[in-house]
Amino acid sequence: MTLPLTLESNQLADYLAPSAVIDWQHRSIVLLGQSLTQGVSSISEQVRVMYEWVRDRISHTYDIGDPRVTCTASDVLYQGHGFCFAKAHLLAALLRSCGIPTGFCYQRLVFDDAQPDRFTLHGLNAVYLPELDRWVRLDARGNKPGVQAEFAASQEQLAFPIRSHWGEVDYPALYPQPHPKIITALQTYPTATALIAHLPATL
After folding, report:
1. N or C: which end of the chain has fewer CB within 10 A?
2. What is the pLDDT of residues 69-112, one digit of tens each?
3. Cα 142 from chain centre
4. CA-CA distance, 171 to 191, in Å (whole number)?
5. Alpha-carbon span 121 to 203, nearest angstrom
6. What Rg value do the Cα atoms of the chain yield, rounded?
7. Nearest-angstrom CA–CA distance, 85 and 10
8. 66 vs 104: CA distance, rounded Å
């Protein structure tokens, strides 16, 4: 079942705006967006191509054991990895560089099934598809055994289905810019180990 989203801004232009973190006007991002979508006329297909590129070509920092923390979209692209939040920053920047409105949404998940009382936030995107006149959530975290997120316009397929009986939550808010708690965490803790120890647990 698709979660009804609550837009934090009624101005579609806000979901296209650049910022210090979503620096989609950076030359590397503009050129990549142009390269990936060259010859692709359908907006839905453009979204799929860019989504799958970020999902598959940008590593999840935890999965590869990289100690560095990335935050801005251009740095995620340059370093080639990021936590879920940072990968969402890059995907939003790529999509916005091609004129496709994109926002940020979050889930509260159990950090580890062996510690069901410890929670963490998880970041993902929602993109506006004009052909459907609705927003569709996408999770570019990166697939691995037990995690299989896909681009699906009709029935979303995210990395982590919510287990409400464990206290997990789908937050319905769709933000035009990343949540300040996320930016603060990514910019405060310079190593992956430190960030993991201090990940926000709730919005």
Report:
1. N
2. 999 999 999 999 999 999 999 999 999 999 999 999 999 999 98
3. 10
4. 27
5. 8
6. 16
7. 23
8. 24
